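Hi C.,

You asked whether I'd gotten around to modeling the 188-residue construct. I have! Everything is below, sequence then structure, no commentary in between.
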Amino acid sequence: MTKLVFITHPSVEIDEFTPIDQWNLSEEGIEQAQRLSSLQELSKFDTLYSSPEPKSVTVALMLSDYYHKLLPIDHKVVGLKEIHGRRFIPPEIFKEATKMWFDNPTQNPNGWESLKEAQKRIVFTIENIMSKEKDNTVVIVGHGGTGTLLKCSIKKVKPVIEEDQSSQGSYFVADWDTRSLVKDWQQY
């Protein structure tokens, strides 16, 4: 079986003066990521990729250390970048904007990439990765929005906010050969 484990980065250090694609994990996020060392689904993975953003790369490097796996040179996958642009949006406005993004899949609220375009980009990127990984277990560290769009594609359902993770620091597992979900979002 070709297996995909998609992990979202945990809590980040929010700095409204730094572009969000440069944010890294908070102390709480580092503690959350350390829990990945005991995750059953990761006990025997073959390959590890991540979004190029520091918050995801940090998790990938921690996993590389925990499980004594070398990261491939091309482990930073630009196609997995965050959907929501670079500028800070306060949490209460962000939740509302995210709902609007799911409700209007062809629009670009707050200058974000449209949901339809983002899903195309993410699915294409993952299909490209997985086409080289037959019979392997692949771990990808990314973001909640990108993971949700991928998960909805795997489930063959319309992307809706109800399919999103309940909080940062979650993962799902898919059987890539059958394009089916083995385990829905779980917190770590």
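If it helps when you're writing up: Helices lie at 27-34, 54-67, 91-103, 115-130, 144-155.

Thanks,
B.
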